[in-house]
Amino acid sequence: MGGRLIVYVLFGVALLCLVGLYADTGLLSSRFLDAASQTKDLFAEASSSLDARQSSPNAVKVDVLETGNDQSPGFLSSPVGEVLPPKLQGLATEHQLRRDAESNIGQESPTLAETKVAARIPLEKVEAKKPEENPPSLAETPETKAAGPSPSDIGVTSQETTLSSKELAEATVSEPTYGFYLHVFEDAAAVIYQVRQIKKFFPESPVYMMSDGGMDFGELCKREGCTFKLCPPANDRWHPWPFFRRIYDAALSLNTDYVIMLEPDNTVHGPIKQQPAADAGGILVRDRGFSEREHVEKLAQQRVPRFKWSKKSMSAGLAGGSYFRTEALLDALSDENMMKIDWNMLGDRASKEIFSSDFAMQYAFAARGWKIAPWEESAQMDKHKDKPLTGKKDSAFRHYCSCYPGGKPTYNIKMNPEDKNLVKPGGFGMRSVCQLCYNHTRYIENWGSAKCTNRLPFQLSEVLIDRHHPELKTKPCDLPWLCAPGKVRSSVLEVPATANISAPQVLEKDAVVQQTDVSPPDQLSVPSTSAAVGSDAAKAEGNKTTYGFYLHVHGDPAAVIHQVRQIKNFFPDSPIYIMSDGGMDFSELCKQEGCTFKLCPPANDRWHPWPFFKRITEGALSLKTEYLIMLEPDNTIHGTIKRKPPADAGGLLVRDRGFNEREYAEKLGQQRVPGFKWTNRAMQAGLAGGTYFRTEALLDALSDENMMKIDWNMLGDKASKEIFSSDFAMQYAFAARGWRMEPWEAESAQMDKHKDNPLTGKKDSAFRHYCSCYPGGKPTYNIRMKASDQKLVKDGPSKYNGLNSVCQLCYNHTRYVKLWGSDTCTNTIPFHFSETLLSRHHPELKTRPCDLPWLCAPGKKRR
């Protein structure tokens, strides 16, 4: 006890000296002096309490608190099991009152309230292990570590620990503690692997896993000693109300200084070497900003005067691999505080993306004045297998783009047979992939209570519902998360529909957590609008040489092979031209199937009109057909074309879309077609995969000379960088020559959240285009290549692999010729981005040597 008393005395003397020094120099506010004085009193009270307990024979044992609906969930326990002085219980009491209030509305208590929780013990300083340069081989899941006794309930094992006086004294100065929140759905092998990696590098850290209506990992947590919570499906990544509540509950359960959020596609590579410097942080997302800054700053300044939501804060991507200071998380994401934000206003003035979890958390933390910053322990992996796009190479956590070579590593893991008993279906029959589909009333009607979501009601505004779900005004509801099935919405009222549509039933047999059975290429299950091909195909409109197919590809060989064979099935007389943008070599496939293949240098041409236009015009010249149909690997083909194209170009219907600088484009178009108007109807044609172009119009609009009559730098300056993406750029190019465009609803369908019913276009359309939200993922990306087809593809030249570009606004004609020796596959007329655009989108090039070889000479600074 004597040694301990000395520690407290020395601390108190140092604190008083510091206070005196700052008070004498006038540098310390009266508010801080009061806080320092209170802190001194608290240490005196704590020391007195501790001295009184020292006389007990069990003084060095850690007390274990039983928790229930009427007790604190662990926050009322001190780091060594002592009950804290009353003044230190404020934060815990606030959270407990919230939990008590929730019990009045019939909400289930979180998992922690049903288990015994181990008292919080400071982490021992563990010798840092050398971070792995690359993750361990993901072909096999690591062996399971011994998890100790399995609790009868899913949770953290209760225990008694005897601590020495020295350890007790060190409790107040321990290293920051980390708890892990795993946001999961399925991907069982990835989740099991991830839990074991956490146990390997963070053996003392608690783990809390939440499944959004997906698989049940209860048995895994029993074995590995983690906490598991199965919540109703809510697609919470797109709905802040359940998402915030679930991570909030996790933070209460974990009871650590920081919460590290991981998703199944993250990999863990070592211990944390750089402690968090802010209240929240994640991967660096360069040049990102958020709208409605003033609204957010005004809210924040109620708590933190003069708070500013900085550009550095906005560049922190709060995805998997992010950290959150528990204090900040429990404040920013609490039911009450998150509801102080006008989410409907943000969704109206900004975009629906503000509801996605990464964006929504930025708004929520900023609205309470908490500091956010990028974190170097979280690396973003991109096109390079070993070198991060942002973050350090030895970061503890890695996040992967879908473009990562070979796919996201954890998704390639195969489950060990002995692990199959650790997971089972969650039993929810309704799987939500719907965006902007949250309604508090419907949530409770579907699931019986407000468990796992905000207890304060929220409904999306009529403005947002009409904008994103316009079909609900004219047809019976088929979105049970948003409205009562079988009814037609009329403003805020729901009226019975004339159609007799029964509500969906939640059936065990409909559980969506089973592994998808992926068929081989020739057996991919897609609805066909033609039962037979042959005489029927010959009767279809213009199937002789009317249509030629231009396939814009890079990788995805199984999808490309399947697509070529589907074209041959439904359009046996139509020629096919495949262009690979610096990707795989499909020449052997074309030798076998009778198509034309062109391998071009990598240019990320989807974001650069000069190579994109040149390549499709060369495809049109080769095909020599009346119309060119452009396809991408994620399109599916379902039959012959039954209705001939009505315009010069057309594709998916994109409702309510418009383009800037209409008058400029019309003025150019009127030079060829007097009186030409770029109509709203024309602007709604999405010229993506599944688009047709009249060859005559294409060769005119996209020619080197005519496309260069457009002032692209002016458009990029006055509009946005999106005008350079192929879909937008072709709209400008065709309008600037006075060609007519309109949606091709008859034969090009946009598939969205419903597996069989298109969002736009006809159900019997010949071509389908898929959003990333499509249930089960885009069909062609689930195809596995047959062993017999592997000889039909090969990697492109090694010089291409090293310079594959995913960079946007990274085109320079001079650099293109320098890299590839000629202007093959790009516009022969030079184009360079203006200094205005380069400074805006690549400001780093003014202060550091160039690392964008497509844009400037590597190692040199631009002037």
UniProtKB/TrEMBL annotation:
Residues 102-163, 517-537 are annotated as: Disordered. Residues 122-133 have a biased composition (Basic and acidic residues). It comes from the Eukaryota. This is Uncharacterized protein. The lineage of its organism: Eukaryota, Sar, Alveolata, Dinophyceae, Suessiales.
